[in-house]
Amino acid sequence: MQNSAIIKTENLSKTYPLGLTALKALDTVNLSVATGEFLGFIGPSGSGKTTLLNIIGCLDAPTSGSAKVLGQPVESLSHKEAARLRMNRIGFIFQTFNLLPVYTVFENVEFPLLLLGMDAERRRGHVMDALQWVGLADRADSKPAQLSGGECQRVAIARAIVKKPELVLADEPTANLDAKNSHHIMQTMVQLNKELKTTFVFATHDEKVMAYLNRKIVLADGRIVKDEAGGQKSNVRDQKP
Predict the structure, then answer these.
(1) What is the pLDDT of residues 54-74, one digit of tens each?
(2) CA atoms of 217 and 49, how far apart (whole Å)
(3) pLDDT per residue over 145-182, tens digit each?
(4) Which of 232, 196, 221, 239 is closest to 52 using CA atoms?
(5) What is the DSSP string of the chain?
(6) Percentage of the chain modeled with pLDDT above 70
(7) Quick check: 215 and 227 in contact, CB under 8 A?
């Protein structure tokens, strides 16, 4: 693991208007994440974990304080600059797969590369590499409706990592999966973290996800209340659900 910080926040706060009052979703969060980490924001609904993930993903901006992601100050980015950073350097995995039903698996994974303007030959190589990583190269011509939930989530992972981003953000990626598929998905992401040196950051309250994390950052009421080393499962290829 390198020592450079891929994410750094200082006194980060986020407040949302709520009628005549305001809801403080994040309260003076100070955080540093090194390149290559595999960590998660842990906490119940309303703890601030998804808000923090959204700010790191340049989908939202702080109310006060600062957040630097991939060397860029999130609070100073224009909408176009934020979109460009997301498109080029960040991958996203959500609990809902968000696959386009009329397109094949190949076309769903290819989509981010089309946005980058990559030529057809390079796109095909990248897409097939990504599908190979998640074990779905033989389903490239299938439609999402022909896949299981676990396979759909693996397609979503392939789409997130096809451009080989430096940072992947995953919001409750196992929420709609059974235990067997949850473990398979997490094993896949651990392997990608090791092979591609991609930084993975999760927002979760799923114990199955927590077992794979190298670092757990626990939030409550918008504050970090605990930051501890995780016990990432070893020999991930041999883990049994």
Answers:
(1) 999 999 999 999 999 999 999
(2) 9
(3) 999 988 999 999 999 999 999 999 999 888 888 888 88
(4) 221
(5) ---SEEEEEEEEEEEEEETTEEEEEEEEEEEEEETT-EEEEE--TTSSHHHHHHHHTTSS--SEEEEEETTEEGGG--HHHHHHHHHHHEEEEESS----TTS-HHHHHHHHHHHTT--HHHHHHHHHHHHHHTT-GGGTT--GGGS-HHHHHHHHHHHHHTT--SEEEEESTTTTS-HHHHHHHHHHHHHHHHHH--EEEEEE--HHHHTT-SEEEEEETTEEEEEEE--PPSSGGG---
(6) 94
(7) yes
pLDDT digits (tens, 9 = 90+) for 74-133: 999 999 999 999 999 999 998 888 999 999 999 999 999 999 999 999 999 999 999 998
Encoded tokens for 43: 């906490």
Q: Are strands 90-94 and 167-171 parallel, antiparallel or unpaired?
A: parallel
The residue assigned the tokens 């989509």 is: 111
pLDDT of 237 over the 70 cut: no
Separation between Cα atoms, residue 22 and residue 166, nearest integer Å: 35
Beta carbons of 11 and 65 less than 8 angstroms apart: yes
Give the domain ranges of the chain. Answer: 5-238
Cα 109 to Cα 100: distance, rounded to the nearest angstrom: 10
Count CB-CB contacts under 10 A for residue 216.
Answer: 18
Which residues pair with residue 168 across a beta bridge? 91, 200
Architecture of domain 5-238: 3-Layer(aba) Sandwich (3.40)
Predicted structure pTM score? 0.88
